[in-house]
Amino acid sequence: MRINKRLFLAFSLVFVVVMGVILVFQYHREKEYLTEQTDRQLSVYNGLIYNYYHRHLQHGFGIADLMSLLPDTTLRVTVMDTLGNVLYDSSVEESETMDNHLSRPEISELRTRQTGKTIRQSASLGQYYYYYAERFPDLYVRTAMPYDLSFISSLKAHHYFLYFMALTIVAAMAVLYIISRRFSSSVQESENKMRRQLTQNISHELKTPLTGILGYLESIIENPDMPTDKHNLFIARAHSQAKRLSELLGDISTLNNIDDNRKMYTFEQCNVADIIAEVVGELRLQIEQKDFRIIQDYPAEIPLRGNRSLLYSIFRNMLDNALAYAGEHITVTIRMEASDPVHYRFSFTDTGSGIPEEHLPRIFERFYRVDKGRSRKLGGTGLGLAIVKNAVILHHGTISAQNISPHGLRFTFSLRRF
Fold first, then answer.
1. How far from 49 is each of 84, 143, 184, 371, CA to CA, in Å?
2. How many Cα atoms sit within 13 Å of 295 on the Cβ side?
3. What are the residues facing 344 on neighbouring strands?
4. pLDDT in tens, 392-413
5. Is 335 among the domain residues?
6. Which of 211-220, 283-292, 395-404 has the lowest mean pLDDT?
């Protein structure tokens, strides 16, 4: 099979799979969105009913008057005390005689949560309802909609997106076919191009700090009379984002150099013990602020022929990682476990919270974050451990990570002596 046909089939398969995943995700997300809209509307009703109940309690409970003003005429309302005793039910005339509702699934959830919901058959009416209950300081308020065809249809995702995605796939397949016919590069060239394209995909990682910088600077430019304290705050935040952007670009450059220009790194005689001491010294302020205890268990002389900058990056990124994510009052142990005529073997251990086991196999991947939102908030680039792994490999070593009992994380790695 010709290379362009193989590429067309490969690209098409990947594209169809990706679009299929997006399609399924979007379809379910839209259903969730419609359900959330229903929940929000029922929550609004719950709040209105609760306030109305207290406002008119002294004059007698006239919630039926309120319900006549609500747009949903099929709405069922139940008000209970916190013991589950029914005070009012819009669908039952003698509400006080109803069974205690504390064991109802949606009410049972209110013991531990602010809201509870379920779809079930009403024990009182024999009809299926979508129940949404909410806990208030002294009452439980529950609203329900009949779970009929009309309600089920209202929760179905619209099919317009499905049609759009189908047309997109057809159009993309046509474009891919045209591109594949014109593709004349060699296999090596195509691999290099794909790698460059993958590298370009990191552009979205650059957008966050860049957008922040532009936003703060535009605010300053468009508001020349901005108060001095606010002006200085925006400048400081723009500087912080610029610093983050610089660190990200620096990490990207380091990884690209390791991948593409390994020969550019010069190897010289180094003392690993001095490099570790330099890293610990430079981070002394952060170490003291987080009340870290650093145990350095290794000989005073660890001679090794390597690249000092990359060796520094190994220990600096590990300690930065512990300071950012391990917590406070943590003990970090840097130890030379053993050595043989060819390799030194080190361990870097912290007593922090560790990493969920399912994430451990991927923590050395570029831009992989265990907690994306928290990592970005703390300023991480997502490249630190990728740099560590590649630097270790460049020094003819291996590295692994494992959680330790009762809690903590240990990195074990080797470095070739020469």
1. 17, 9, 70, 39
2. 12
3. 339, 415
4. 999 999 999 999 988 899 999 9
5. yes
6. 211-220
**Domain tally, the chain:** 2
Longest Cα pair distance anywhere in the chain, in angstroms? 92
**Are 210 and 223 in a shared domain?**
yes
> Is residue 392, in this structure, part of any structural domain at all?
yes
3-state DSSP call for residue 129?
strand
End-to-end CA, the chain: 47
Quote the pLDDT of residue 58: 47
212 neighbors 242 (Cβ within 8 angstroms): no
Domain containing residue 312: CATH number:
3.30.565.10
What sign has the CA pseudo-torsion 348, 308, 265, 254?
positive
Higher-confidence position of 200 and 390 = 390
pLDDT surpassing 50 at residue 201: no
CA–CA dist 229, 212 (Å, integer): 18
Domain around 226: 203-261
C-alpha–C-alpha distance, residues 165 and 252, integer Å: 34
Model confidence, pTM? 0.48
> Cβ distance 294 to 254 under 8 Å?
no
Q: Which of 242, 348, 250 lies closest to 292 in space, CA to CA?
A: 348
CA–CA dist 144, 157 (Å, integer) = 21
d(CA 119, CA 147): 8
247 and 368 inside one domain: no
Q: Are 345 and 405 contained in the same domain? A: yes
What share of residues in the chain are helix, strand, coil (percent, to 5)?
Answer: 55, 20, 25
* Residue 179 scores a pLDDT above 80: no
Q: CA distances (Å), 382 to each of 197, 259, 408, in order?
A: 19, 17, 20
Q: How far apart, in whole angstroms, are the C-alpha atoms of residue 152 and residue 154?
A: 5
Q: Are residues 251 and 345 in the same domain?
A: no
State residue 5's pLDDT score: 67
Instruction: Say yes or no: 225 and 309 in one domain.
Output: no
Beta strands in 289-416 (DSSP E): 293-297, 303-306, 331-339, 343-350, 399-403, 409-416
- As given in the structure block, the two tokens for residue 74 are 């099929």
The DSSP output letter for 111 is G
Mean pLDDT for 154-166 is 70
pLDDT tens digits for range 126-153: 889 999 999 999 999 999 999 988 787 7
- Quickly count helices (H) and strands (E) in the chain: 13, 12
Q: Could you tell me if 276 and 387 lie in one domain?
A: yes
* pLDDT of 11 higher than 80: no
